[in-house]
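Entry for adenosine-5'-triphosphate complex. Fields follow.
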Amino acid sequence: MPQSDLTFAVPKGRLLDDALPVMERAGVVPEPGFHDKANRALCFATAREDLRLIRVRAFDVATFVAHGAAQIGIVGSDVIEEFDYADLYAPVDLDIGHCHLAVAKQAEDTRDIDAQSHVRVATKYPNITRKHFERHGIQAECVKLNGAMELAPSLGLSRRIVDLVSTGTTLRENGLVETMRILDITARLIVNRAALKTDSRVAELVETFRREADARASQQVAA
Ligand SMILES: Nc1ncnc2c1ncn2[C@@H]1O[C@H](COP(=O)(O)OP(=O)(O)OP(=O)(O)O)[C@@H](O)[C@H]1O
Ligand SMILES: O=P(O)(O)OC[C@H]1O[C@H](OP(=O)(O)OP(=O)(O)O)[C@H](O)[C@@H]1O
């Protein structure tokens, strides 16, 4: 019986620029139309007849793969940690998309929250945030935002934010300072656990990406 096509999910934004060369070295080469920013299609053919790509939001990559609608994908470890899906397995650290998740506050806010039992936090990551503050004995009331968290303290929405930091420019330009680092982040190859067990092509792709990541690591050591 012919096997159905595999679906590979990738995030549509900044991570894609780093992921594409890695994918291409692993033999996942999208059709030319994929690179056209004006193209509104969401599903693309690849050089492999049995493999298609879908381009979705980063959080949705994890959801598509966890539910088996896509068998494999690439996503930041922040997203994996936030959802904690049992059906999702992240076997390869791709060593791209380096950033970290941090708590930040307005630079002029000198009030100590350690002495408090409750704090309001604006974030895209309510689960990670609640767990982080719980470990410090503080109950976090999370206000879910999907972007521009940096506006929340100055507009009185929350005393703290939890957001991704890479260069630190966004925090600085919005008058914020980091108070605590929560999680170091890199992008991972993720697979649906059931698909990994039942479809040998998924295990083969995992091995190919693992070899590609190992080869890059060896080159870096040699350089
Ligand atoms: N400033 C940054 N520097 C490096 N990596 C980042 C940065 N911001 C986010 N990331 C990583 O990239 C991932 C988001 O990927 P990407 O931007 O491709 O997705 P997206 O779907 O466009 O995001 P969104 O849903 O926010 O629009 C994050 O989950 C994180 O792992
Ligand atoms: O430390 P920096 O290098 O300044 O990067 C951090 C910024 O990058 C991410 O936002 P992104 O640009 O993905 O936009 P978003 O707010 O729409 O998520 C993140 O949410 C920060 O705002």
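NOTE: The mean pLDDT is 95.
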